[in-house]
Amino acid sequence: DAGVIQSPRHEVTEMGQEVTLRCKPISGHDYLFWYRQTMMRGLELLIYFNNNVPIDDSGMPEDRFSAKMPNASFSTLKIQPSEPRDSAVYFCASSFGIGQETQYFGPGTRLLVL
Amino acid sequence: GEDVEQSLFLSVREGDSSVINCTYTDSSSTYLYWYKQEPGAGLQLLTYIFSNMDMKQDQRLTVLLNKKDKHLSLRIADTQTGDSAIYFCAENFSGGYQKVTFGTGTKLQVIP
User: Fold this and answer.
1) Which helix (H) or strand (E) holds A89?
2) Residue of A nearest to B104 (CA)
3) B107: nearest Cα among B25, B33, B13, B36
């Protein structure tokens, strides 16, 4: 398997624009996680899905953020409108089950909002 | 709520042992993990320990768990320059929905 695939790898946009980050989890994995990493706040869990259903979105910062998982092989994280403080590296991870099961991380999308 | 804390930085000489420490608050944690993040990459699981264990050894890695003090450590024997990375401690919070909470990360610098 190719591992968790994220696109784009880098995104530069202007404040107010819509940003869509994409993730393809490892085939067969039933959990998908979206994380945000910044120097100030470290690694934060934004939302996670089980079998395409959002389970916990308490980490989503505000209504400007939304995430969907229309099928088992694809998820999006959308920011609308984007703000400079959204600049961060966004990671997608997937796992088969939870608990001791390893979360496999994608390479991340580095977002810069000017 | 759950909280996981680590020191931010550790510097060691090549060949020495590294010890990275972590404290957590959730006494109901079931699993505790150590992840490694190399520059420009995502996190990679190094090892994990079940909460009813005190120690786990895996080649150069030794994990020690003190449940009473809620303290977790990762010892890397014979540290190599390739071990330079950020190391994250994480706990599995078992209250209700399960999710993993990550620490702030410790940046390990190995000096040749």
Assistant:
1) strand A88-95
2) A42
3) B36
Q: Which of B98, B78, B75, B99 lies closest to B87 in space, CA to CA?
A: B75
For A33-83, give the secondary structure using H, E and C.
Answer: EEEEEECCCEEEEEEEEECCEEEECCCCCCCCEEEEEEECCEEEEEECCCC
Structure tokens at B47: 């090892």
> Which residue does chain A place closest to B30, by CA atoms?
A99
CB-CB contact of B75 with B57 (8 Å): no
pLDDT digit string (tens) for chain B, length 112 residues:
568 889 889 999 999 999 999 998 877 777 889 999 998 888 998 998 988 889 999 999 999 999 999 999 999 999 999 999 999 998 886 654 567 788 889 999 999 9
